[in-house]
Amino acid sequence: MELEQIIKLEGGETRMKTLKGEKGFTLIELLVVVAIIGILVAIAIPQFANYKKQANDGAAEADIRNLALAAESYYATNGAYPASVTTITSTTTSAAFDGAGFKATKNVTLAFTNATTTFTATASNSGGTKTFTWNSASGGLQ
After folding, report:
1. For position 123, what pLDDT does the model report?
2. Contact (CB, 8 A) for 121 and 67
3. By residue range, what is the domain housing residue 30?
4. Are 129 and 118 in contact (CB under 8 A)?
5. How crowded is the C-beta side of 70, counted as CA atoms within 13 Å?
6. Residue 6 pLDDT
7. What local confidence, expressed as pLDDT, does residue 124 receive?
8. 14: buried, middle or exposed (CB in 10 Å: 19+, 13-18, 0-12)?
9. Structural domain includes residue 4
10. SS3 of 64, please?
11. What does the pLDDT profile of the chain (142 residues) look like in tens digits?
12. What whole-number distance in Å separates Cα of residue 68 and Cα of residue 70?
């Protein structure tokens, strides 16, 4: 393929000069590349959304396990399970928590029911798809 270039000569005269060996991408080649990138993005975005939901579910599951650990720690110290989640949930932002408390992950909703010698708890993340239940009488995560 040959390309032409306009060149100015001395005296103001212009001529067309043919360039040999100059190559570039055609419009079709560029459109094919854009189409391939579009297909890859169409595949990647739903997968990313699925991974994000799994991560949010994992955060809720980790929080319910930590809540159960904090409740058991509270029981060992006080001889009874806490009355509510707020009793064992820390509101501090530091890494060192008071007593048996823990800090729940952002967007995780926790519920806690005390039944004197046992407890049940649920956790879910607003960005996830699952709700996790912990029953101390049945041996843990259900």
Report:
1. 93
2. yes
3. 25-141
4. no
5. 25
6. 64
7. 94
8. exposed
9. no
10. helix
11. 455 566 666 666 666 565 566 677 889 999 999 999 999 999 999 899 999 999 999 999 999 999 998 888 888 888 888 888 887 876 554 444 454 567 888 899 998 898 888 899 999 999 999 999 999 888 888 8
12. 5
16: in domain: no
Supply 28's token pair.
């079709």
The terminus-to-terminus CA distance of the chain in angstroms comes to 70
Token look-up 């650990």 returns 69
Q: Which two tokens stand for residue 43?
A: 């595949």
Copy the structure tokens of residue 39: 């297909």
Residue linked to tokens 């809540």: 67
Is residue 19 assigned to a domain?
no
Cα-based distances in Å from 101 to 12, 70, 73, 135: 86, 6, 9, 19
pLDDT of residue 8: 67
Domains in the chain, number: 1
Residue 3 inside a domain? The answer is no
Nearest CA-CA partner of 122 in 48, 68, 41, 56: 68
Q: What is the pTM of this model?
A: 0.66
Planar angle of CA 117, 62, 102, nearest 5 degrees = 65
